[in-house]
UniProtKB/TrEMBL annotation:
Protein name: DoxX family protein
Keyword Membrane tagged: yes
UniProt KW keywords: Cell membrane, Membrane, Transmembrane, Transmembrane helix
GO cellular component: plasma membrane
Segments traversing the membrane: 49-70, 77-98, 104-125
Family: Belongs to the DoxX family.
Pfam families according to UniProt: DoxX
Topological type in the membrane: Multi-pass membrane protein
Protein localization: Cell membrane
Entries under InterPro entries matching the protein: DoxX (IPR032808), DoxX-like_oxidoreductase (IPR051907)
Amino acid sequence: MERSPAPRRARAPWALATVLIAHGLQKVSNGFGATVEGFAGMGIPFAEAAAAFTIAVELAGGLLLALGAFTAVAGILVAVAMAGALVFAHAGSGVFAADGGWELVGMIGATGLVLAAVGAGRLSVDGLLGRGAARSRTRRPARRSRAATA
């Protein structure tokens, strides 16, 4: 009996959503002004707009990914936010997050792109509504080779 990959596939959006929402809530609890100040201190241009965008992506994007709703849009926005973080805040610090490096934002951004490309799976709002990448990934019965039927 073949098992469906759908439950396993649903874990990636949930894991990413957990990380995003945690970081968004951290920024909110620190205060918007402190977040803007921190962004400006890292040399991020338009720090106020960047902080608002990042908080919105982390909270709203995280919620959408947890539900598997508008996964492609949320995944792309996550990748854009993380690309900005990588370029403006982490690129000069090497790879390792412990040293201020880009590994965490790189993985978050890459995961966002993967989810945008493949969708959240059948056990998601997108999958249940038949939209996005989930629509084109329905399981089909395996085709038998001609040698097997001869």
